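hey so u asked for the seq, here:
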Amino acid sequence: MSILSECLDYFVKKKGQNIAELAKKCRIDRSTMYQYIRGKRSLQNQELFENILAELRLTPEERLKAIQAFEVTQIGEEKYYQREKVKELFDSLLTLEESRSYRTFLKGAGEFSLDGELFSDGWGSRMLCGEVEVQKGINRILQNAIGKGEDISLFLQPACTVFLYTINAIYTLAGRSTIRHIICLNSNSAPGEWDALEMVKTVMRCGVALGAYCPFYYYGIPTEHYGMMNLLPYFIIAGGFAVQIAVDGKTAIVHRDPEIYPFFQETFERMMQLCYPLMKSKTGLDKRLSWGMDYTKDYDFRKTIEVSSGLCSLQFWKRELIQKYLNPAIPGYTDLLEGMACYTAELYEVKKKGDIFILMNARYVLDFIQTGVFKEYPTIFFVSPLDKKDRKYLLEQIFRAMEEGWYHVCFLDEKVFPLDYRWETVAHQDGKLYMQYCINDQFRIFEFEIPEVSDAIFDYLQNLSMGKSAMGEEESRELLRRWMKEYLD
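ran it, structure tokens below
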């Protein structure tokens, strides 16, 4: 029996239903209904499935279980749970908030020392036993390093017990230290283990919450780079201390020996040579444009899905439009104007050669049409909202691109739209993916070339575009035309 047939069989018995009567109510042959419920035949018809659920009089919780079983049977268990994990990833991004207050718990670097607590003789190594003692020790070491503005190096798996505590401690202290974090992505994770999607979800949350967070990844196993220390495979380097940590977070060894501490520093730097960045933080529109120019050269747009909270119109901005609205008070305005004009022109050319499918939030687009405000970009970049004439111009360019066949718009219902206005996602079918988060004048850019992540997100977005809450391209185009006529003519 399939998962669906087992589920239906259970509810038929629970509700005291007669299969013959159920078949009659659903207007199908009794033997066919029997085959569906006994797993002799696969139920593919969505409308019939909904009729069966209606006749079974299921509670909302029971109905949800039945729908899940139907979807699992349709696409397979692995694909179903993969899509659920991607949905969890997007859902987690909706609740993110950056730390905006930078507090220092230390009055001065010279007024604080760990020697008295961790090292009575000033140097050496000390073991910390018990989860509370490990956490207290890490907190004091991080406090010391952040108070002095020193960089922090983390070699911790997101699934490691002590990882969340460490990140929370850094967030609470909220200093200006740069945090470099290396994680291992194991492509052969066993069922039940943290996979790449779950790790990426955690890393992205850290990337938004911590302003100076720099994550890197490599493939392998955590213990392969520094010998036989398998019992305590993770470590933190901060403020002259190296903390070697057990997987369960209940044991740690704090090193301050001048011969041992450099070993961990060298190990971390050696591992960095094998790593790839997961995020690039760009402050200011000029640096974002510089990244964008490289992006247009490196990425193939032959089959691309974008998730845009706004009108996704940047490639249609001509020089006159940029000059009219770009804020001249921005430092380096002249160079920025030239750079933006070059970038939008280049972006138009590379996208025109591709096949771009845009998922848009209908309400966000309507807000722009009505107000001329690009919520997805910081207002400091613009001197004013776009006037009606220029809003209409951008819409006309979109219609032209749609008619040329390389630009496809799909409106999603606000309830299922996966991101808020601060995020943008571009998934390429060739396995590359980038996700951008914008706050104030800073752009956090997550670039992925991890097949199990980029392929899963591309599949999820493609499936979302074909769901019940997605408008077809023609319907979306007509809605845009109606809005343009109603608000801009």
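Confidence is low (pLDDT under 50) at residues 99-115, 189-193. The chain has 18 helices and 15 strands.
lmk if thats what u needed
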